Amino acid sequence: MVTNDFLGISKMNFLLETLQVIVMSIYYNMEAFVRLFIPPKNKNVTGEIVLITGAGSGIGRLMAEKFAPLGVSLVLWDINQEGVKETSRLVKEKGVTKVHYYLCDCSDKAEVYRVADQVKREVGDVSILINNAGIVTGRKFMDAPDSLIEKTFEVNTMAHFWTYKAFLPAMAANNHGHLVSIASSAGLIGVNGLADYCASKFAAIGFAESVALELLATGKDGVKTTIVCPYFINTGMFDGCNTKWPLLLPILDPDYVANKIIEAILTDQVYLLLPKTMYLIMGLKNSLRWKQAALLGKYLGAFENPEHCETTSLKLH
């Protein structure tokens, strides 16, 4: 009797939760459709403390410049002193009144924690964390020294663990904040000749997604997350790289990418894939058999020889 009652309750719960999923899925699809015509309003970030890693050049510098007139306090991290100092000067010209820059090797856990503590003392609790620092070796797997493979993971993946550990507790305590992971389309689809880079970006995406789910599961829905997956960006990181089909997968303009990232943060967009054709490509990849997916990869240029890219030495974002 007890067993039958238990089974009956279990079936009822299954039906109710299934119905809830169906109804909410329809609602979310309708919401997404409406947003095609009525974009969400930008949130007010005045007074927020924004930390950007890899802020000394490239996308990191551009994001800092675009945040400058929004009334935030900027905290800039980079391993290059001259680069981060120059970014600090540029953002002041753009209107920011509070900017702090620090030398920090994000691949060094102890240094990340040390500089993070310094930021908390001198500036306050970071409320928008943008993990942007990244490197690429540009070596085929069997040609890449172990030390460079380890460095790729230390910067592109493990650094995210340490910055989250350092700044997420305050966000969770306040149920307010934003975690941003600048990953890559190479973290969604494997690319010939970029095994270590792809693996590190796959890991970064998986980490960011898992933490986002942890936040939802613990009721910390005030801490937002954004995962950015762009195709090759013309920042110097992939100098010389070409695209097989420029209309389908163009080499991205850095200013365009920075604008889209800021827009995604201000509208609490969870995933940002660039260009938009990446959404279609990902849908195809996840629905095709392996041979078909490999054929698609060949068509898109994933099998092209990457050696024409000038990434044979370690390069940063």
From TrEMBL:
The keyword Repeat does not apply. Keywords: Oxidoreductase. Gene3D superfamilies: NAD(P)-binding Rossmann-like Domain. CDD domains: 17beta-HSDXI-like_SDR_c. InterPro entries: NAD(P)-bd_dom_sf, Sc_DH/Rdtase_CS, SDR_fam. PANTHER family: EPIDERMAL RETINAL DEHYDROGENASE 2-RELATED, PKSB. Belongs to the short-chain dehydrogenases/reductases (SDR) family. This is Short chain dehydrogenase/reductase family 16C, member 5a isoform X2. The gene is sdr16c5a.
